[in-house]
């Protein structure tokens, strides 16, 4: 059997890691030449089968790519290539946070997602449920948007000021997945000082773009474990292994709508922040039709 497969690229996501690598800022892409893209959805033209492909060697922003068989994952024919290409990367954040950065979560654990209305936060609801959560509580600022997040068992609206937010609903939490950080995270953790069970807090993102000091008393007042989750805290081989489970799971999820742009227009659109303001940006080769 040939070790590589040629895929006709149908869609490739312009994820933050892709942009960081393209700028030379990411540790994994410091040398030139660099071909943009780490993943895509493509079709094997010899068999007609649809695949998700992941490769840190890059180069998925192309009409066709050659990729090792070990880096492709089959998809059902009914999956929308553009939506899947947009959503799988943000879904990795919560999946890897739970599988790699938590330990011994109880059966039917309770998960709290801080920043549940973001793309990654919405997908984190699915990840938590797929990985054994019995209850998922979402936290965000926009009450109307929060109420529409699929799969939540309950939610809490962040108030302004943050200190007025009531977190009594989360006293049975086992794991917190935080995409916000800052004052919201500190107030949430401060509200858990009377919990009896261990709490695992995993910091994934910083949507607030503010940092706040975690009082030392919190580290002593209850059984709190604090970890971060990102490509530096887990290894790529672990991700490759988890994709065998994540890809088929995500294929059945309700994915967030993307924004697609023709690959031929990449030079004019790459730095246009308005294109990615409300949706994940995906580049689509002309050969998709």
UniProtKB/TrEMBL annotation:
GO MF: oxidoreductase activity
Gene3D superfamilies xref list: Medium-chain alcohol dehydrogenases, catalytic domain, NAD(P)-binding Rossmann-like Domain
Annotated protein name in UniProt: Quinone oxidoreductase
Organism: Daldinia eschscholtzii
């Amino acid at each position: 059997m040939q070790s590589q497969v040629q895929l006709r690229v149908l869609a490739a996501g312009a994820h933050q890691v892709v942009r960081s690598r393209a700028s030379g800022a990411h540790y994994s892409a410091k040398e030139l030449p660099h071909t943009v893209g780490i993943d895509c959805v493509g079709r094997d033209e010899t068999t007609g089968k649809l695949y998700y492909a992941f490769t840190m060697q890059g180069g998925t922003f192309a009409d066709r790519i050659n990729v090792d068989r070990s880096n492709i994952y089959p998809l059902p024919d009914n999956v929308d290539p553009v939506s899947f290409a947009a959503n799988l990367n943000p879904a990795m954040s919560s999946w890897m946070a739970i599988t790699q950065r938590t330990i011994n979560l109880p059966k039917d654990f309770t998960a709290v997602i801080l920043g549940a209305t973001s793309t990654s936060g919405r997908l984190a609801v699915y990840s938590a449920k797929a990985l054994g959560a019995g209850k998922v509580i979402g936290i965000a600022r926009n009450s109307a948007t929060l109420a529409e997040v699929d799969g939540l068992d309950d939610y809490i609206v962040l108030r302004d000021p943050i200190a007025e937010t009531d977190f009594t609903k989360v006293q049975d939490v086992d794991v917190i997945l935080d995409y916000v950080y800052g004052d919201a995270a500190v107030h949430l953790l401060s509200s858990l000082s009377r919990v009896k069970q261990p709490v695992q807090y995993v910091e994934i993102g910083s949507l607030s773009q503010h940092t706040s000091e975690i009082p030392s008393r919190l580290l002593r007042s209850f059984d709190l474990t604090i970890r971060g989750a990102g490509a530096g805290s887990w290894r790529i081989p672990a991700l490759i292994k988890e994709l065998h489970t994540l890809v088929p799971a995500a294929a059945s999820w309700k994915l967030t709508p993307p924004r697609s742009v023709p690959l031929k227009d990449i030079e004019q659109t790459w730095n246009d922040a308005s294109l990615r303001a409300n949706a994940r940006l995906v580049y689509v080769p002309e050969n998709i039709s």
